[in-house]
Amino acid sequence: MSNVGPESAYIKWVAEAAPVGRDGSLWVAWLVRDIVDDLGTRTQFLAYLGGRPRVTTDLQFEISELYPHVEVDWDSIKQSLESRRPQTDVNGLSDDEIAMRFRELAHEQGMSVQDIASRVHIEPRNILQETETLVRTAGNRERFERTSGSVFAYLAENHPEYAYGVMKVRLLLQGDHETLERLLADEPSGFSVDSARRRRRHWSTALITHMDAMRDSAD
Fold this sequence. Notes:
By secondary structure, this protein is an alpha+beta fold.
């Protein structure tokens, strides 16, 4: 799924109210895609697959007729439905790989980029979309590696808000919710110049701590 892009379809699991007479909720599958435009990224729901989803010939025909321009890797969709588990061990990835692949990794866990941006409190700018555009532009990865040694180091030096966003996405995708919540609780708020300075200091401190920990774990 390394070629997953904004127009590619993927599986999203959604909590649905249980039928009358049953408690709690049910997890049901939808076939969705991300749409990126001037307003940011949003999720378009293409087909309801239910709690026991299957890829059928009728489903494939319906999607091809209704959404002829949408890319669907049906083999990948089948694997996602069969496993319902992330296919990638996020803990084993470098920060560069997170920066380059966070859309694909989010899709593996049934989330869109919009979902993860909301969960890690990235707003109001669409930082993740900007980051994705920057790091995936042809030639940029090689240039960043030559300049700073790695993509993530380049972001930390030149676009700390992007690197900080990628770091928070990493914590979410690898399930380190306790660390993420602490980080979010410590984020400075406000719109003044002083608030902006405090945010940049917060980003810098958090990034240095994170990069030191990543180096220690690699030794």
